[in-house]
């Protein structure tokens, strides 16, 4: 019996990288790949771990769109759909496609991007792992440093929208049942915004890194 290399995916779906949003998402994956090959990144487990999560966010958005994800801004979720999924799962039938599972992957991307956003703000600002610092507290220093490094402002508009959506998912009693506040296109752009910060930071620390 032949065994597959556990480092290789068991199976894949192929998407058209020339269409939106796959063109953007595949380019972001290439940027993550480049960062992972950087010796500075290779030596930092916190950075590697965060990039791994961000890659998962890219993957989740790809799957969500492949499964036909549609934005549900201010539109409530169908109770019938939830009941159908509950029935299927109670019978050990695991859904692999459809609207509900597409939304599952969208939520996965939201959680991942928001958590990596917060983690990179802590990493870049040198905040110890055991110290609590919220996104709003970390942004002023980050914006100041980015302007010092580049001469321009760092745009994190969509990252902030994703962050707010993750808070709603975690802390609002109904979650996003009555409707989402996040467009898929904004979730995609948020990854670009985060990569801009990380790439700029890595480029800045590279000249001062020890050999």
Which oligomeric form is depicted? single chain
Mean pLDDT: 91
Q: Overall 3D geometry?
A: globular
User: What's the count of strands?
Assistant: 0
- What does the radius of gyration come to? 19 Å
Mind explaining what this structure looks like?
The protein has one domain (22-206). The chain is globular, with a radius of gyration of 19 Å. Helix 3 (45-66) runs antiparallel to helix 8 and helix 7 (157-171) crosses helix 8. The N and C termini lie far apart (46 Å). 63% of the residues lie in helices and 0% in strands. The protein is mainly α. The chain has helices spanning 22-36, 39-42, 45-66, 79-90, 99-124, 135-150, 157-171, 184-205.
Please give a quick description of this structure.
With 211 residues, the chain is mainly alpha-helical. It is built from eight helices and no strands.
What characteristics describe this protein?
8 helices, mainly alpha, globular, 211 residues, single chain
Helix and strand arrangement:
Elements: H1 22-36, H2 39-42, H3 45-66, H4 79-90, H5 99-124, H6 135-150, H7 157-171, H8 184-205
Helix pairs in contact: 1-3, 1-8, 3-5, 3-8, 5-6, 5-7, 5-8, 7-8
């Amino acid at each position: 019996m032949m065994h597959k290399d556990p480092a290789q995916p068991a199976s894949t779906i192929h998407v058209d990288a020339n269409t939106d949003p796959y063109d953007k998402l595949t380019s972001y994956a290439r940027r993550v790949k480049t960062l992972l090959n950087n010796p500075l990144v290779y030596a930092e487990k916190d950075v590697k771990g965060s990039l791994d999560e961000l890659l998962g966010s890219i993957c989740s958005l790809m799957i969500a769109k492949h499964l036909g994800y549609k934005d549900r801004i201010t539109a409530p979720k169908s109770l019938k759909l939830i009941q159908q999924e509950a029935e299927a799962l109670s019978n050990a039938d695991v859904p692999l496609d459809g609207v509900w599972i597409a939304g599952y992957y969208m939520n996965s991307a939201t959680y991942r991007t928001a958590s990596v956003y917060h983690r990179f703000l802590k990493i870049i600002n040198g905040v110890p792992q055991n110290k609590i610092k919220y996104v709003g507290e970390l942004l002023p220093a980050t914006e100041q440093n980015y302007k010092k490094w580049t001469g321009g402002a760092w745009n994190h508009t969509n990252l902030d929208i994703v962050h707010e959506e993750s808070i709603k998912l975690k802390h609002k009693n109904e979650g996003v049942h009555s409707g989402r506040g996040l467009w898929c296109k904004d979730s995609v752009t948020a990854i670009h915004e985060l990569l801009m910060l990380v790439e700029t930071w890595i480029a800045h620390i590279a000249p001062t890194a020890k050999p």
